[in-house]
Inverse folding.
């Protein structure tokens, strides 16, 4: 059942990533359901990021203070759609990605944020396997246990614009090590409807595995982000609050006649066959 049609903005932060961005925007242009607007956030690039974005008809927002959270926030603030999809410059969404977002958010007014998984391109089959099932699978498993609900994955998620504005004042914009996906995940309220959808798929570059230093830096930033937020709201309060919030959401879904989610949208079951703790 569709409650109402939703308008869709897509936000893509980019820093000196013009060539990757070109492929991303080509994949966005090939969507079966075209976004209502595409926003590229130029985070202080010295290459032709802005020119590539304009060539594809995207609106360019400039955020001179570098940092992925700063760039994402600038794009989200500028977005006008009911739902804001988030891709990275190296993301290549499947043709039905935008249509899937519209379908899920239109069918459930209690859904505030939705995230998916990714396959990897580049490198060899070993690293592509590690990326999908260890890197992303481990991220979903570990951080769900830590924060009490499924975490958003930065290369492939969407949030209602209303939900974004509800948390806008709580994200840690002044922290240069803040991950946008984790920080947003951690500041969303316990009653927020947050789900994982394995049918929401993109391809992303395997470049996080180009160097050990780069990989460990990303991991260190993630745990730093969690530590900052846990100092504000402790782990037990988060986990119990999220459990109570899920019960409240199920009650609201029942009142609205949304009695069951499709199996592919089970928020407890990321692809790979395991259930997060």
């Amino acid at each position: 059942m569709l409650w109402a049609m939703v308008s869709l903005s897509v936000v893509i932060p980019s820093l000196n990533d013009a060539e990757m961005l070109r492929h991303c925007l080509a994949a966005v242009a090939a969507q079966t359901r075209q976004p209502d607007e595409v926003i590229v956030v130029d985070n202080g690039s010295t290459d032709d990021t802005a020119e590539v974005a304009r060539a594809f008809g995207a609106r360019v927002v400039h955020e001179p203070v570098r940092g992925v959270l700063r760039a994402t926030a600038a794009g989200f603030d500028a977005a006008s759609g009911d739902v804001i999809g988030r891709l990275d410059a190296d993301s290549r969404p499947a043709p039905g990605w935008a249509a899937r977002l519209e379908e899920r958010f239109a069918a459930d007014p209690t859904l505030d944020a939705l995230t998916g998984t990714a396959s990897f391109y580049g490198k060899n089959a070993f690293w592509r396997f590690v990326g999908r099932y260890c890197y992303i699978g481990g991220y979903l498993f570990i951080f769900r246990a830590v924060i009490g609900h499924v975490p958003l994955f930065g290369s492939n998620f969407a949030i209602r614009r209303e939900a974004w504005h509800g948390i806008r004042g709580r994200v840690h914009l002044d922290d240069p090590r803040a991950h946008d996906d984790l920080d947003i995940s951690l500041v969303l309220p316990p009653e927020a409807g947050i789900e994982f959808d394995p049918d929401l798929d993109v391809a992303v570059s395997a470049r996080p595995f180009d160097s050990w230093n780069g990989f460990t830096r990303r991991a260190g930033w993630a745990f730093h982000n969690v530590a900052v937020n846990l100092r504000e709201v402790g782990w037990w309060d988060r986990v119990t609050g999220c459990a109570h919030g899920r019960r409240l959401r199920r009650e609201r879904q029942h009142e609205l006649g949304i009695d069951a989610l499709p199996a592919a949208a089970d928020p407890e079951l990321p692809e790979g066959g395991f259930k997060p703790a």
Summary: DSSP finds nine helices and eight strands in the chain. The chain has one domain: 8-265.
